[in-house]
Amino acid sequence: MEEVLIVVTRRITRSLSHSPLSRRAAVSGVASLGAIALIAGCGSAPDDEGSGSSDGAAADFLPCMVSDSGGFDDKSFNQLGFEGLTEASDTLGVDPITVESASPTDYNPNISNLIDQGCNLIVTVGFDLADATKAAAEANTDIDFAIIDDNSVDAANVKPLTYDAAQSAFLAGYAAASYSKTGVVGTFGGAQLPTVTIFMDGFADGVDYFNQQKSKNVRVIGWDVAAQNGSFTGGFAANEVAKNTAQGLIDQNADVVFPVGGPIYQSAAQAIRDSSRPVALIGADADVYESDPSVGDLLLTSVTKGLKKSVDEVVATSGEGTFDNSPYVGTLENDGVGIAPFHDFESQVDPALQSELDTISAGIIDGSITVESPSSPK
Fold first, then answer.
1. Taking the model in full, what pTM does it have?
2. Mean per-residue pLDDT for 367-377?
3. Which domain does 120 fall in, by range?
4. DSSP strand pairing (219-221 vs 184-189)
5. Residue at 199 is within a domain
6. CA 119/CA 272 separation, integer angstroms
């Protein structure tokens, strides 16, 4: 009877997983199924769940994911994690379950919901879910967990997925300084957290490196590496606060703006358009030119993290039964971080810039160029 209930529950919850009401619907569905099972009595479970996989072990594997409050359509790291999960699941021939969080109060119940649905792997997206992940992992040692952008959870069944974005942001800072006509570039963050300030550290240090190499004096506003303070919106929503923060940088003559924190780049893009000035935007996490073409004409480049690749890998290893909790750290060397092409700005940057960036990247990889941030993964 329990096997029948789990099979039917999975089918129903998978069909509901993308609905805003999916969590409540899933819980309601489980309760209803319990009553049905009691009435129908116990029977033999079917041999195949109909997952599309011919491999028995893979057919029984159920990978799952919980977003943070940004949701899977944030065109940033939630979306990249979702894409990694779905691509790996397609390869394995299984149907994943995903649950969106509307607010931080959803984290614990969303994870509990996935545990109740029989998930074998639960990927939690973002450092905000660290406490909820830790509690769930400790209480369910038979389930594999992975958490994106956090390495604070120390448990045998939790794999941290982290990224040394200071390395790639260093390249973007160098590119921004090279491109700037005003000699002023700016950055701001959503919240003063290590996963945000690591970008800002690398960006500012890249500008400083450009100044050293070219005997220039391009100025960074919005972040002070030495003091570890700067401009933050207090959250990750695309709102008037984010727009005004970007406008403040533009008003100080910045002609390159680097917002770090999910959708806040959308507000920065609006500030740039409203200013009617030639200001370039730099994206974070995803290649925003690809993930959000509506701002493509503004994008100098993007500082990317290999979330899709790392999630794909952890789903594959868990599905194959080779999961381990050793931290994944994305670097330039393993293509876990990088910068996007210049796309529409290709003709506007110095023709020598790409070659210079390739040389710098090689230097970071071989250690001849040191890139450090207090927030870099250890």
1. 0.82
2. 95
3. 55-163
4. parallel
5. yes
6. 44
